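Continuing the series of single-chain predictions for the mutant panel. This is the parent chain; the variants come on the following pages.
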Amino acid sequence: MAGKRIAVVVRDRQGEALRMSLGLLLLDDAVDVYVLDRPLEQTEETLQHLETMKEFEVKIWTDAGPVEGMESLPTEEVARRLVEYDHVLPY
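Parent structure:
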């Protein structure tokens, strides 16, 4: 049986949000990440999580302009997509 479709919305608690996104992959859930309002902080923790997400082919979108490893997406399009998920987890 396939897992749920889960969107993780990253805003304030960036490291925690990315860590939670990776943990959800263990449950065989489809996890997509949306980084909103500002770019990710370039800390050792976030960079390590991003590298792991890349290995697991987690899709990451952002409304903060073009960022390497992430697809740019307008905020309005993010809002349209979020209603399609089984769960949306804001951080």
